Amino acid sequence: EWMRTMGEKNVTGFPSREQALSDFWEAWQPGGGEELVSLDAACGRISARALYSSVELPVVRSSACDGIAVKSADFASGLPDTSTWRRGRDYIRADTGDDFDDAFDAVIMIEKAAIQPDGSVVLDEDVAVSAGTNVNPRGSTIRRGDLLVEARQLIRPTDLAALIMGGVVMVPVLRRPRVAFIPTGSELVPAGIRPWRGQNIDTNSLMVKHMLLEMGAEPLVYPIIPDNQELLAEVFGEAVAHCDIVVINGGSAVGDEDFNVRMIEERGRVIHHYIAAVPGRPMMLAVADGKPVIDLPGPTLAAYYGSDWCLRAVVARWLGVVPPARPTVEAYFAEDVGSVVHMANLARLNVVADGRGGYLAEPFNFKKGQLAQCLASNAQRVSPIGEASIAAGEPVVVEMLR
Fold it and tell me: 112-135: b or e for each residue (b if 16 or more CB lie within 10 Å)?
């Protein structure tokens, strides 16, 4: 059903983002794998399985504080005469975490034991010593079989410390999906090249590459492919053969040079071509040779939106994890904001403190020359399907991007 609302073409009857992904999951089953990496390379990766300690620490015992190690038998009748004590015979130094000679079985905190120049010691009157005082027993830090990292967890710097402590040398992690990104369009020139009349700059390759890196994928960015049906088909076939996920940018509409839909239909199965999300129609989800294929629209903000809600979910499913949620705040719009009723609308916003303990959201409109502000903004909101507008001053929940 085609409609015109406020002078803009609108289309109804398209699947929601959620329904499109649900249909996509039925058509494609991810086939990942795992690999072993060094501890130094494991940070930021996803653990392939649960990892457990193979060692015990301390190996025998250790001091629980900085102090002096003593013999508890000397304190059997109370505080001994320490005026004749000598280091190495009656006590030794024992620092936090250190092992010490088996002749000693307790530790007195250094704050309660003043070592004199002649080697004798003056103890505080409230010192109480028994066997094991201030001593960490064997395995008190970590025991053999202790869980270090659960399966399918993002490995953080603190997790590296736990893995090292537990005797792990090589870490089994989920293999990163290799994602091909193929920019298409004879009008495109690479970043850094000043465009001539009729040309446009490829803004998406670098943007999506780094979004993929943030998602935990391994991007493979192709050079710009001109609108040549044979060349595009050749590159697409190579990408499907060597990558786990294929992303084509541009050429998903129905223009004279939009070959992608026909090419993918010849190679596989198109799941959805139009989805109820703007900016970003048309956007295509397909499966070719058992691998997911996503055709992102060419406009920069549309390519971002499709990558954010769809490509992020596809990579997470390939890895078997849940995409991390962004922090949110409640803010109110500085002005009335309209939506395309039958679509999930992306709004990029700048959120600032209002000086009264709340937050004000200033919306940007890429159709009014504010694309750069949209891309640099610190927040976003996706309106639910069916929402016509939000009035100025009405509170809404927004995602923080900075």
Answer: bbeeeeeebbebeeebebeeebbb
Helix segments in 217-326, DSSP class H: 229-242, 260-267, 300-306, 312-319
**Residue 365 structure tokens:** 């409109």
- Token pair 């009008």 is found at 187
Other C-beta atoms closer than 10 Å to the C-beta of 44 total 13
Q: What is the DSSP annotation of 13-34? A: SPPPHHHHHHHHHHH------E
How far apart CA 99 and CA 97 sit, in angstroms, is 7
d(CA 151, CA 13): 40
229-233 long-range CB contacts below 8 Å, 24 or more apart? 229/259, 229/263, 232/182, 232/184, 232/259, 232/260, 232/263, 233/259, 233/263
* Structure token pair of residue 54: 């193979």
In the chain, the percentage of residues whose pLDDT exceeds 70 is 95
Cα–Cα distance for residue pair 176/174, rounded to 1 Å: 6
CA dist., res. 236 & res. 286, Å (int): 13
What is the pairing mode between strands 200-201 and 188-189? parallel
| Residue 98 DSSP SS3 | coil
Amino acid at 196: W
Task: Compute the distance between CA of residue 140 and CA of residue 164 in angstroms, rounded to an integer.
Answer: 16
Tell me the C-alpha distance between 378 and 347, whole Å. Answer: 11
Residue with tokens 């999506």: 208
Kindly report, residue by residue over 25-38, the tens digit of the pLDDT. Answer: 999 998 778 999 99
Which residues in 226-241 are b (16+ Cβ under 10 Å) and which e? ebeeeebbebbeebbe
pLDDT of amino acid 3 = 36
The enclosing H or E element of 204 equals helix 204-215
Asked if 159 and 149 count as a contact pair (C-beta separation under 8 A), the reply is: yes
The radius of gyration of the chain's CA atoms, rounded to the nearest angstrom, is 32
Beta strand 395-400 with 328-333: parallel, antiparallel or unpaired? antiparallel
pLDDT tens column, 130-151: 999 999 999 999 999 999 999 9
**How is residue 47 annotated by DSSP?**
B
Count the Cβ atoms, other than its own, within 10 Å of residue 24: 20
Asked if 195 and 201 count as a contact pair (C-beta separation under 8 A), the reply is yes
pTM: 0.81
The SS3 of residue 352 is strand
Looking at residue 276, its amino acid is A
The whole-angstrom separation of Cα 253 and Cα 283 is 8
